[in-house]
# Entry
Amino acid sequence: MEFTLASAFSQEGLLGHSAYVLLVLSMLMRTLLWLRLLVIASAVLGISYSAFILADPVSTFWETCLVVVNIAQLLLTHWRGLRARFTEAEGHFIARHLPGLGRGDARALIDRGRWVSLDPGACLAVQGEPVGQLSYIAEGHAEVRVGGIRVASCGSGDFVGEMTALTGLAATATVIAATPVTVWQIDTPRLREVTRRRDEIARELEAAFARN
# Structure
């Protein structure tokens, strides 16, 4: 197909343009699902254009590979979601703080942390020191102290260290368990790694921290 101004805006040319428009739009998506769906749609249009308009077997082959790879990734994500199982405490955690996260991604995040039972007096954060882990309180209560003075409390459903875990800044208060508490904790280096590599997890956690 010879390139001219007329061919660029012909019906055949518009088919080729549409494939690239969808590809550009896919790069603007904030969720991986929509990104992959738009890439697949773009590649399908690209196959039609390269196979029936350009008669280009090379482009057709690589556009087909793009479709196959993205469909395989979608199926793998779906399979991981079907396999994911959660305890009651994990289910409450996800429903409250990670409602927009897929089951597979939620399972991956939780598995990077650990569930811990702490006795009264256990320290979750120390004022003036970097927070070593992000903590989510599933059961129990803790006291928040500034300069040794109790200023607030936190309990079931609350995070501890959410304001500083990602930044590495020092804690603004000391948090001490007032009762036996059950918490999910993830070390801050691991938390930063997972949020750096998984945009969807980073967005859900940022939203959860804002709500908290």
